[in-house]
Design goal:
CATH topology: Rossmann fold
Helix content: 40-55%
Largest sheet: 8 strands, mixed
Number of strands: 8
Bound molecules: adenosine-5'-diphosphate, magnesium ion
Structural class: alpha/beta
Oligomer: single chain
CATH architecture: 3-Layer(aba) Sandwich
Number of helices: 11
C-alpha cells in the first residue's frame, strides 16, 4: 500500500472571521470522502472552536498534552468521515504564547501521530509567536483573504512578517467570500502588486470560495456546509480546491 505523506498545512490570516476554521473543517470532510486521512490541530490555542464546528465535546485538549498529562493519541477525537481533531482549549491565556519547551512537546507529539495524509493547523488570526511557529514547521502555508479592505492589508502584513521571521517564500492565497472568480483575481493581484514591489516572495493563487448563505445557515446549526448542501456554490468551490490539493 502507498505510504501516506503526512503533509502539514497551516491556515493563517491577517484578520479574524475570514473563514479559516470553517474552511479547514469542511476541507477535512471533503478529503475524508476522497479517502484521505486528515488531522486538524486547533491551534487557536486560547480560543478553541474547531470542536464547535463538529458539535464535539472533547474531554481532553492540547493543554493536557503540553502539561504532560496525556499523550496525543489520548486527546484526539474522531469526527465525521474519519476526520481527527486535536482540540484546543478555550480562554487559556498562557497557551497564546507557548515556550520553546512546550513547542518541542507539541512537535514531538506530531511525530507520534499515526500515518495520515494531511495535518491542517488552524491558527488564530494575526502574527503571534505561535502563529509564526506553526507556519515555520509546515510544508505549505495558506493565507485566507476576503474582500474586506482590512483583510487585504492585514494579509500583506502577515506575509511580510512570516517571510522575515521564517524565511519562507511560498504562500498559497485562498480568497473567501467573493462574488465571483474575477473579484478573487482582483484581490489576488492587489496583494501581488505590493508584495512584488517590496518582498521576495511567491504568491500562488490557489482558488476562491464564493460568499454563500448556505455556509452561514449550516454554521449556525453546527453542521458542515459541504455535507449539508453539497450542491451549494461554496461547497463546489471547496471541492475543486481539495481536488487541486490532492492532485
Ligand atoms: N464563503 C462563505 N460565505 C458565507 N459565510 C462564510 C463563508 N466562509 C465563512 N463564512 C462565515 O464567516 C464566519 C467566520 O468564519 P470562521 O471560520 O469562524 O472564521 P475564522 O476562523 O477565520 O475566524 C462564520 O460565521 C462563517 O459561517
Ligand atoms: Mg477560527
Amino acid at each position: 500500500m502507498e505510504q501516506k505523506k503526512k503533509r502539514t498545512i497551516t491556515i493563517t490570516s491577517g484578520k479574524g472571521g475570514v473563514g479559516k476554521s470553517s474552511i479547514v473543517s469542511n476541507m477535512a470532510y471533503i478529503l475524508g470522502t476522497m479517502n484521505k486521512l486528515t488531522y486538524i490541530l486547533d491551534a487557536d490555542l486560547s480560543l478553541g472552536n474547531i470542536d464547535i464546528m463538529f458539535g464535539m465535546f472533547p474531554k481532553y485538549n492540547i493543554k493536557d498534552l503540553i502539561e504532560g498529562k496525556k499523550r496525543i493519541g489520548e486527546i484526539v477525537v474522531e469526527g465525521p468521515c474519519g476526520i481527527r481533531v486535536i482540540p484546543a482549549t478555550s480562554g487559556v491565556a498562557e497557551l497564546s504564547n507557548l515556550s520553546m519547551e512546550e513547542r518541542n512537546i507539541l512537535f514531538s507529539s506530531f511525530q507520534e501521530l499515526p500515518e495520515h495524509d494531511f495535518l491542517f493547523v488552524d491558527t488564530s488570526a494575526g502574527i503571534s509567536s505561535n502563529v509564526v511557529y506553526f507556519n515555520a514547521i509546515s510544508q505549505d502555508i495558506f493565507i485566507i483573504v476576503t474582500p474586506d479592505p482590512a483583510s487585504i492589508t492585514d494579509s500583506y502584513a502577515v506575509i511580510k512578517v512570516l517571510h522575515k521571521r521564517t524565511g519562507r517564500k511560498d504562500f498559497n492565497i485562498l480568497i473567501n467570500m467573493v462574488k465571483d472568480e474575477q473579484e478573487a483575481l482582483d484581490i489576488y493581484k492587489n496583494i501581488l502588486l505590493v508584495t512584488d514591489r517590496f518582498l521576495d516572495v511567491y504568491l500562488n493563487f490557489f482558488g476562491f470560495i464564493p460568499a454563500d448563505a448556505q455556509v452561514n445557515a449550516a454554521t449556525r446549526k453546527q453542521k458542515l456546509w459541504v455535507e449539508r448542501s453539497p450542491e451549494a456554490p461554496a461547497a463546489k468551490a471547496l471541492q475543486k480546491i481539495c481536488e487541486r490539493l490532492v492532485s
